[in-house]
Specification:
This protein has one domain: Alpha-Beta Plaits (2-Layer Sandwich). The radius of gyration is 16 Å and the shape is elongated. α1 runs antiparallel to α2. Helix content is 21%, strand content 30%. Strands 2-3-1-4 form a four-stranded antiparallel beta sheet. The mean pLDDT is 93. It has 115 residues and is of the alpha+beta class. It contains two helices and four strands. The longest helix has 14 residues. It starts with 8 loop residues before the first strand and ends with a strand.
Length: 115
């Protein structure tokens, strides 16, 4: 098994309404996200910024917020965190999907390079 320093690292970024922020962060942290390898043994590390998201639910949507066909703008948070190992990234995404209130949670996963 690879050491923490040699393991592939990923950045998970997701967008979430304020009412679900704590639940989503708890879910991804319980899945292993937000842990930094090294002597400090830091856990639950994330960067959170506030912004406005927008979407228009399609005809077959069942939106948590808004109405089908109507453009919606909502207050949301962008959360960024580290996942050490592909398995941790996958577990964090799975946990996020279960905890997130949206029918289609918006998230991104980036493979990071060591320098």
């Amino acid at each position: 098994m690879a050491t923490a320093a040699a393991a592939q690292k990923f950045k998970l970024v997701f967008f979430v309404p304020p009412s679900a922020l704590a639940a989503c962060k708890t879910a991804i942290f319980n899945a292993g996200a937000g842990r930094y390898p090294g002597v400090g043994a830091y856990t639950e590390c994330a960067f959170t910024t506030r912004g406005v998201g927008q979407f228009r639910p399609g005809d077959t949507a069942n939106p948590n917020i808004g109405e089908v066909g109507k453009l919606e703008e909502v207050d949301e948070f962008r959360v960024e965190t580290l996942c050490v190992g592909r398995d941790v990234a996958q577990k964090a995404v799975d946990a996020l999907k279960k905890a997130h209130p949206y029918e289609e949670p918006a998230y991104e996963v980036y493979k990071l390079e060591d320098m």
